[in-house]
Design brief:
The complex is a heterodimer of chains A (733) and B (325). By secondary structure, chain A is an alpha+beta fold. Among the domains of chain A are: 220 residues, Dipeptide-binding Protein, domain 1 (Alpha-Beta Complex); 246 residues, Dipeptide-binding Protein, Domain 3 (Dipeptide-binding Protein, domain 3), CATH 3.10.105. Chain A is built from 24 helices and 25 strands. In chain A, the strands form 7 sheets. In chain A, strands 12, 15, 16, 17, 20, 21, 22 and 23 form an 8-stranded mixed β-sheet that branches. In chain A, α13 runs antiparallel to α15 and α20 packs antiparallel against α21. Chain B is an all-alpha fold and 325 residues long. Chain B has a domain of 217 residues: MetI-like (MetI-like fold, Orthogonal Bundle), CATH 1.10.3720.10. In chain B, α11 packs antiparallel against α12 and α13 packs antiparallel against α16. The termini of chain B are close together. The interface between A and B is large, with 65 and 77 residues. Chain B: Its main location: membrane. Chain B: This is Peptide/nickel transport system permease protein.
C-alpha cells in the first residue's frame, strides 16, 4: 500500500471494524457486556473495611449491605421506615426479666427491668455464597483450611481457589459474629456502645484478650466457638437469644445493620492463615455472606464487582407501598423474585468531571449532582419545585429527591463563658444571645445559595421521616419563626436585636464594657467556595452588629478543639444510624458531652429536665405518650438554642430512563436487589449518544499536511543549498 | 566503576535516613497518632479505649523520637521513628493502616503507573527531540518562530487545562476514547491513548525549548562546521553529529527520571481513573496513612538516587572519555 494511503486506510478499517462490532469507541466496558443485565455505578472513596464487624461508613456499607444479611431489614417502599424480617422468621418480640431472671410483663417499668431478651429464629434453608472456605474433599476434609507453603505460593487472589462449597445458615453464625464485636484484633466501632448493653460483652473481650495472648504463635486461629458469651446464646439450630442489660428498645434497629450479620466460623478459620493475610486475602476484603450479591472482583483502587449469589434464598419484591408508588411504577414488579440485576460494576471515579460526562454518555446508570453541574441538570419550577432541565428530559433522565435522615447544624459550646455562660445570670444572657443569632442566620437563604435549594430548614434536631418529627404549625420553632398564612416565616431582625439587647449586647456592644461583641467560629473550611460561605456567615452576624471571627484549621486540630471544649461556635452534622428520634436527641444528652465524657454531645449541652426526659423517652415504645415527651424535649431545646438547627439536606439523584424501581432513602442500604435495568433501551441510547465524530480526524490530517508542505519544501531547498549559505545562517540561530 | 557504585550506595544511606527523618517530622507535626487512629476508626462512637488499642497494636503508643522511660539504647530504638524506619531498609514496608500489605499494593499498582509514564516518557523524548531538531534545522525561519511561540503558549497553560479540554474534545464531543478508566492487557490501549497524548503535550513546551537550546549551542561548535565542510548533508550533521554530542545534557535530564516512572503521576491518574502509585500516594495523604506515605517517600528517594547513579553510568556509555572511579 502506498504510504500516503496507509493512514487513512487504517482509520477507515478501524472505523469499519468498530461499526461491525456495534461497540462505541468511547465505551469503557468490554464489548461482550454490552447487552448484559449489569448495573454500572461508581464509588469515589476506596473502602477501608468490608468486614461487617468493622465497616461503618457509607462507602463501605454500599458493598457490605448487598452481601451480608442481618436478621432484619427495612421495608423498601413504606415510610416512615418499617422493620421487616430479612433472614428472621419474624420481628423478635422482646421479653423483660428482673434481676432474678423472672419474666416481667410487657408494660413493666424500666427501673424493674434488669434484662431485655430478644429471641430470633432464622429461616431454614438459607445458604452461604459459594466460597473456598466451605470446600471439602470426598472424605469431608477441609480443602483449604491448612494450606502448605507450596499451595499458598500458587494463590494470588481468592478466585485462584478452584473449589468452592457452601453451607446452610444457622443461628451459630449470628452468635459468632456478635462475639467478634469483642475480638481483640478487630476494631468494631460499636463495641463500646454494645458493651454497655449486651450482657457480658465487656467481660468477654477480656477473656478473648487473655486467650489471644496465651495462644501459641503458630496457631493463628482464635476459635470463638470455644468461648461462651453470657448475653448471646444459641438456642437451637435456627434460634439464638440476645440478652440486653436493662431496656433498650432501639436495639432492634441495630439488628438491621451488617454488624449483626452472620459470619461462618469456617471463613474466619480460612482467612486466619498467615500466608493469605500477607497476600491481602482477608475477611476484611473478601466477604462471605448469604445476601443477594457476592463480591467477585475486589480492586478498591479501580473497580469492585458484585455478582448475583447463586445460593440466594427466595425473596420477593414488596407487594404494597405508599400512596403514589403504584403511579410511579414502583409496584410493577410486586411479588417477583429478587434480585433483578445479574451484576453490579462499581468503578472508582475520584473526579466529578469524568463521572458526570460518563453518566451523560449512558455509561453510568445514575448520578448525583455536583454544584458545578447543578444548573445543567436541574431547574426550579412553580413553587420552587425541582425538576430536570429540558436537555436532561430529552435524554429521558429523571430526578428523584428525598430529604436525608441527616442534620447539619451550627453548635455553640455551652462551656464557653460568652455563648454558654458560667453562672445563672450569664447563662440567661447567653441563651438570649443564641436565640438572637438563631433568628439572624437565615438558613432559607443559605440553602438557596450554597445548597442549590437542596435542603429544608431544620426546626429541631429531628429530620422528617423519623418517628418524633412533627409537621406543620406544631413542628415549627416558635423562637425563630412565626406561623403566617399557613407557612413558617422567619422572625424579623428587629426581634433578634431586641433579644440581643436583653442579652446585654444592645446593637452588638457589650453594655458592661462598651466593647463590640466578637464571636469566634471554628471551621475546617479552606476552599474558595468555603470562603464565600464564611463571608455570608459573617454578614449574618453583622445584621446584629456582631463581629464573627473565623478560625480556620485542619480537621485534626478542629476535632481536638471540640474534644477539649476550646471551640466557641462550630459546624457539625449527623447521619441517622436508625430512624428513631433517640438517635438525634442523644446528641444533646448531658452524659454524652464531649468534654469529660468523650460522647457525641459536641455542644456540651446540659439540662437536667432534658436529660431526665431523654432517659424516660429512650426506654419507651413509639406512641402518643412518647411523642408528648419528645415534644417537651424539643421545646426545651428550642428555648435553650444550643444549636442553630441548620438544615436537613435533600438528596438529589439523576436516573436514566432504563433504571427502574428506584425509591431513594438513606436509612436502608440493601436496595440494589430491588433495582431493574432495561438493557435493550440502554444499548440503543448508548449507540445513539456516542456515535464517533470522524471529521476532526480529516481536519487534523489536513492541517498537518498544509503545515508540512512548506516545511518539506524548505527542507528540500535547504538540502540543495550551497554550503556558504548554510553556514551564514548559523550566525542567526 | 564498581567501587564508584559501592561508594554511591554508602552515600545513599545517610540521605535516605535524612529523608525518612524529615518525612517523619513533617508528618507528625501535622498529625498525631491519635488523629491517625480517629481517621481509621471513624468519627462515630469512638472511645478513648479504642484509640489506645489501635495505637498499641500498630506501635504508635510509643514516643516519637526519644523514649525517656527506656534504658540505654532502647531510648532510641523503642520509638516510633526507629521501629517504623528500620524495616524499610530491608524493603519491609509493613501494612497500611487499613491492614493491607503495602508491598503487595505497590506491586499491583506499579504496572498501571508504568503503562502511562513509560509511553509518555518514550514518546515524549522522541517528539521533543525531533521537534527541537526540526526547529534548529529551520532556525531563523517562520517554522522556528512559530515553534517557539507554540512552546511558550504550551508552557503557559496548566496541565489540568489540557486534561479537561482533552477529555471534553476527544471523549465527550468526538467520542473517540473513554473519558476515564483502566483495563489490563491490550484493552488498556483505548484508556491510555488520551492520557498519554495529554502527558506528552502538557510537557512539550518546556522540553522542546530546552532541547532546542542544547542543540543550538552545539550547532555553533567547530565540529559542526568541520562536518559541513566535509560536505555532509544538514540532516546527517544534525541527527548524527549534533544529536550524538548533545546526549550528555539530554541524559542528565532524562535518565534520572527513568526510575521515577514507577511512581506515576498524581494528577493524570486521578482524572483518568488509573489505579497507579500516584493516586495511591494521594489517597494515603488524604487518609493520614503514615505507613504508606513514608514507604512512598522512601521509595521515591531511593529511585531518585538510583536515577542519579544511572545517569553517571550513562555518561560513560555516550562519552568514552568519561571514567567513573
Amino acid at each position: 500500500m502506498d504510504k500516503r494511503t496507509l493512514l487513512p486506510g487504517l482509520l477507515i478499517l478501524f472505523a469499519w471494524l468498530t461499526a461491525c462490532s456495534g461497540h462505541q469507541w468511547n465505551n469503557p466496558y468490554v464489548a461482550e457486556d454490552t447487552e448484559k443485565n449489569i448495573l454500572y455505578t461508581v464509588f469515589t472513596e476506596r473502602p477501608k473495611h468490608l468486614d461487617p464487624v468493622q465497616s461503618y461508613s457509607s462507602n463501605e456499607i454500599q458493598f457490605t449491605a448487598q452481601i451480608y444479611e442481618p436478621p432484619l431489614q427495612y421495608h423498601y417502599l413504606k415510610r416512615p421506615f418499617v422493620l421487616i424480617p430479612a433472614t428472621a422468621e419474624e420481628i423478635p418480640v422482646v421479653k423483660y426479666r428482673d434481676v432474678h431472671g423472672n419474666q416481667l410483663p410487657g408494660d413493666a417499668q424500666p427501673d424493674d427491668i434488669a434484662y431485655s431478651v430478644y429471641e430470633i429464629t432464622i429461616k431454614a434453608g438459607i445458604h452461604f455464597q459459594p466460597h473456598p472456605a466451605f470446600a471439602r474433599d470426598a472424605q469431608g476434609h477441609w480443602l483449604y483450611h491448612d494450606l502448605n507453603r507450596q499451595e499458598m505460593a500458587s494463590v494470588r487472589k481468592l478466585a485462584d481457589f478452584s473449589q468452592t462449597g457452601t453451607r446452610e445458615l444457622v443461628a451459630e453464625d449470628y452468635v459468632y459474629q456478635i462475639k467478634r464485636l469483642a475480638h481483640p484484633k478487630l476494631h468494631s466501632p460499636i463495641y463500646g456502645l454494645m458493651a454497655d448493653y449486651i450482657a457480658g460483652l465487656r467481660e468477654y473481650a477480656d477473656v478473648l484478650k487473655q486467650a489471644d495472648q496465651n495462644r501459641p504463635e503458630e496457631k493463628t486461629f482464635l476459635d470463638l466457638r470455644d468461648y461462651q458469651l453470657e448475653g448471646v446464646q444459641v438456642v437451637d439450630r435456627y434460634t439464638y437469644r440476645i440478652t440486653i442489660k436493662g431496656k433498650y428498645p432501639q436495639f432492634v434497629y441495630w439488628l438491621a445493620m451488617p454488624f449483626f450479620a452472620p459470619i461462618p466460623w469456617e471463613a474466619d478459620r480460612f482467612y486466619s492463615q498467615q500466608g493469605l493475610k500477607q497476600k491481602n486475602i482477608t475477611l476484611d476484603w473478601y466477604p462471605v455472606g448469604t445476601g443477594p450479591y457476592m463480591l467477585t472482583e475486589n480492586d478498591p483502587n479501580s473497580r469492585m464487582v458484585l455478582e448475583k449469589n447463586p445460593n440466594f434464598h427466595d425473596e420477593y419484591y414488596p407487594a404494597e407501598g405508599m400512596p403514589g408508588d403504584e403511579e410511579n411504577d414502583l409496584l410493577v414488579d410486586a411479588g417477583k423474585k429478587l434480585p433483578f440485576i445479574d451484576k453490579i460494576i462499581f468503578t472508582r471515579e475520584k473526579e466529578s468531571i469524568p463521572r458526570w460526562n460518563k453518566f451523560l454518555q449512558g455509561y453510568y446508570d445514575a448520578s448525583g449532582i455536583g454544584s458545578d453541574s447543578f444548573d445543567q441538570a436541574v431547574q426550579l419550577v412553580g413553587q420552587g419545585e425541582a425538576t430536570v432541565t429540558e436537555a436532561m428530559a430529552e435524554q429521558g433522565i429523571r430526578l428523584e429527591t428525598a430529604v436525608a435522615a441527616s442534620t447539619y447544624y451550627m453548635g455553640f459550646n455551652m462551656l464557653d463563658p460568652v455563648v454558654g455562660g458560667r453562672n445563672e445570670r450569664e447563662r440567661e444572657s447567653a441563651r438570649k444571645l443564641r436565640q438572637a443569632i438563631s433568628i439572624a442566620v437565615d438558613y432559607e437563604e443559605f440553602i438557596s445559595i450554597f445548597a442549590n435549594g437542596r435542603g429544608m430548614p431544620a426546626q429541631s434536631p429531628i429530620p422528617p421521616g423519623i418517628a418524633g418529627y412533627r409537621e406543620g404549625e406544631e413542628g415549627v420553632n416558635p423562637v425563630v419563626y412565626d406561623w403566617v398564612n399557613g407557612e413558617p416565616k422567619r422572625k424579623s431582625i428587629q426581634a433578634a436585636k431586641a433579644l440581643l439587647a436583653e442579652a446585654g449586647y444592645p446593637d452588638g456592644m457589650d453594655q458592661r464594657t462598651g466593647a463590640p461583641l466578637i464571636l469566634y467560629f471554628d471551621v475546617t473550611a479552606r476552599s474558595a467556595e468555603d470562603r464565600s460561605r464564611l463571608d455570608w456567615m459573617r454578614k449574618q452576624f453583622q445584621k446584629l452588629n456582631i463581629q464573627l471571627v473565623v478560625r480556620s484549621t485542619d480537621y485534626n486540630r478542629f476535632q481536638d478543639k471540640i474534644r477539649k471544649g476550646n471551640a466557641q461556635i462550630f459546624e457539625w452534622g449527623w447521619n441517622a444510624d436508625y430512624p428513631d428520634a433517640e438517635n438525634f436527641l442523644f446528641l444533646l444528652y448531658g452524659p454524652q458531652r464531649k468534654v469529660g465524657n468523650s460522647g457525641e454531645n459536641a455542644a456540651n449541652y446540659l439540662n437536667a429536665e432534658y436529660d431526665r426526659l431523654f432517659e424516660q423517652m429512650k426506654n419507651m415504645e413509639d406512641g402518643p405518650q412518647r411523642q408528648q415527651i419528645i415534644d417537651r424535649m424539643i421545646e426545651i431545646l428550642r428555648l435553650d438554642a444550643p444549636w442553630l438547627w441548620g438544615y436537613h439536606p435533600k438528596d438529589y439523584g439523576l436516573y436514566h430512563a432504563w433504571y427502574q424501581n428506584v425509591k431513594p432513602n438513606r436509612i436502608s442500604n440493601n436496595n440494589l436487589k430491588y433495582f431493574k435495568i432495561d438493557t435493550a433501551l440502554r444499548t440503543q441510547k448508548r449507540a445513539e449518544w456516542n456515535e464517533p465524530v470522524i471529521w476532526p480526524v480529516a481536519l487534523i490530517l489536513a492541517v498537518l499536511a498544509v503545515s508540512f508542505v512548506p516545511a518539506v519544501n524548505a527542507f528540500r531547498r535547504h538540502e540543495s543549498s550551497t554550503a556558504v549559505r548554510a553556514t551564514s545562517s548559523d550566525t542567526t540561530g | 566503576m564498581l567501587s564508584y557504585i559501592i561508594r554511591r550506595i554508602f552515600y545513599a544511606i545517610p540521605i535516605l535516613i535524612g529523608v525518612n527523618l524529615i518525612t517523619f517530622m513533617l508528618f507528625f507535626v501535622v498529625n498525631t497518632p491519635d488523629d491517625m487512629a480517629r481517621m481509621q476508626l471513624g468519627i462515630k462512637y469512638v472511645t478513648p479505649e479504642a484509640i489506645e488499642k489501635w495505637k498499641a497494636e500498630r506501635g504508635y503508643d510509643k514516643p516519637l523520637l526519644f523514649n525517656q522511660e527506656a534504658e540505654n539504647l532502647d531510648k532510641l530504638t523503642s520509638t516510633i521513628f526507629f521501629e517504623k524506619s528500620v524495616s524499610m531498609f530491608i524493603f519491609d514496608f509493613g501494612k497500611a493502616d487499613d491492614g493491607r500489605d503495602i508491598a503487595q499494593e505497590i506491586k499491583s499498582r506499579m504496572l498501571p503507573s508504568l503503562a502511562i509514564a513509560l509511553p509518555v516518557f518514550v514518546l515524549g523524548l522522541v517528539v521533543y527531540i525531533t521537534c527541537a531538531l526540526l526547529m534548529v534545522f529551520f532556525r531563523a525561519t517562520y517554522i522556528d518562530f512559530l515553534g517557539v511561540v507554540s512552546c511558550v503558549a504550551l508552557m503557559s497553560i496548566s496541565s489540568l487545562f489540557y486534561i479537561i479540554v482533552g477529555q471534553f474534545l476527544i471523549s465527550k464531543l468526538w467520542h473517540w476514547v473513554p473519558i476515564s478508566g483502566y483495563e489490563t492487557g491490550l484493552d488498556a490501549a483505548k484508556f491510555l491513548f488520551l492520557p498519554v497524548i495529554i502527558g506528552v503535550i502538557s510537557s512539550a513546551g518546556s522540553n522542546i525549548r530546552w532541547y532546542r537550546t542544547i542543540f543550538l549551542e552545539e550547532m555553533n561548535k567547530e565540529y559542526v562546521r568541520t562536518a559541513r565542510a566535509k560536505g555532509l548533508s544538514e540532516r546527517i550533521v544534525l541527527f548524527r553529529h549534533v544529536l550524538g554530542n548533545a546526549l550528555i545534557p539530554i541524559l542528565t535530564g532524562a535518565v534520572v527520571v527513568v526510575p521515577l516512572l514507577f511512581l506515576g503521576s498524581l494528577l493524570v491518574e486521578s482524572f483518568f481513573g488509573i489505579p497507579g502509585l500516584g493516586s495511591y500516594t494521594i489517597d494515603a495523604i488524604n487518609s493520614q496513612d503514615f505507613a504508606i506515605v513514608r514507604a512512598m517517600v522512601f521509595l521515591g528517594s531511593l529511585l531518585y538516587i538510583i536515577g542519579l547513579v544511572l545517569t553517571d553510568i550513562s555518561y560513560t556509555w555516550v562519552d568514552p572519555r568519561i571514567h567513573l572511579a
